[in-house]
Amino acid sequence: LYSYEAIETGTGNTQYSGQVTLGTAPSFTLTDTARGGHKTYDLAGGTNGTGTLFTNSTDVWGNGSASNRETAAADAHYGAAVTWDFYKNELGRNGIRGDGVAAYSRVHYGNAYVNAFWSDQCFCMTYGDGAGNLKPLTSLDVAGHEMTHGLTASTAGLRYSRESGGLNEATSDILGTSVEFFAANSSDAGDYLIGEKIDIRGNGTPLRYMDKPSRDGNSADYWDRNVGRLDVHYSSGPANHFFYLLSEGSGAKTINGVSYNSPTSDGSTVTGIGRVKAYKIWYKALSTYMTSSTDYKGARTATLQAANDLYGANSAESTAVAAAWSAINVK
Ligand code: ASN
Ligand code: ZN
Ligand code: CA
């Protein structure tokens, strides 16, 4: 008639998010019964299969340093849990597919692998250890980014090339960043930077910036007719910029100690509506109006429809959506 699964929790000492609570049922494995049964596995340098489920009878996982192989697992397991809670509490969605079933995570992929990825084939997230094995790609924003590739595949299905690919990448940056803010984790406060904790270039700079994407040297700030020719991690720039402008507005601003200065293509001033309304609009557009072939023009239409549904036609929110798109040259 019904089944009962114990909800057990242990302590994770993560590298990027401090000490956290982890789902560890049954009997001290990295299994999050409260969140669809999400499990975290050790690939131990392998590049296929599931590897080995993490087990530790002390129920204390990692020590905050990458030299302990459970540390990356604690970060990945935590990132999946916070993203799950964000989807549920903020977006009203029960897991990636809305069916209450979790994906799983794999850490220690390959040798000094400096990336992380989502796979529709395994319905799983995979993380490398980073260069020199010291900075695994398991920060909260990156976990939210990768899990959101699963969400996008389950909803709009944005094709991973040209403009739809840029929108797919931006959706992962937008919701990954939103997860970081949602967590309100004192060791990893929210920001509009992607991968800032990983120091992927070794000079302290993040992978991407949302206030002015061209700060990375490659991403586009504004839409133009050739933007779809860029790599999807650079054609995401205008949509990331749209999300920043819609949330925070144009110009200079400091948030959680990080300074931003967001320009507009036409010198207009955009007034932000706050990131909570902004991500609710983006998610409704993604899950209701966007399709596999949605381009930048289509994203403008989809988010305007979503804002009209949520806040009313002619609402301040809908007006701000139009203004933010116009400011990145999507008229
Ligand atoms: N980390 C990258 C991403 O999620 C991996 C890739 O390029 N597919 O976009
Ligand atoms: Zn991505
Ligand atoms: Ca970040």
Automatic annotation (TrEMBL):
<keyword id="KW-0378">Hydrolase</keyword>
<keyword id="KW-0482">Metalloprotease</keyword>
<feature type="domain" description="Peptidase M4">
    <location>
        <begin position="9"/>
        <end position="152"/>
    </location>
</feature>
<protein>
    <recommendedName>
        <fullName>Neutral metalloproteinase</fullName>
        <ecNumber>3.4.24.-</ecNumber>
    </recommendedName>
</protein>
<comment type="similarity">
    <text>Belongs to the peptidase M4 family.</text>
</comment>
<keyword id="KW-0732">Signal</keyword>
<keyword id="KW-0645">Protease</keyword>
<keyword id="KW-0862">Zinc</keyword>
<comment type="function">
    <text>Extracellular zinc metalloprotease.</text>
</comment>
<feature type="domain" description="Peptidase M4 C-terminal">
    <location>
        <begin position="156"/>
        <end position="330"/>
    </location>
</feature>
<keyword id="KW-0479">Metal-binding</keyword>
<keyword id="KW-0964">Secreted</keyword>
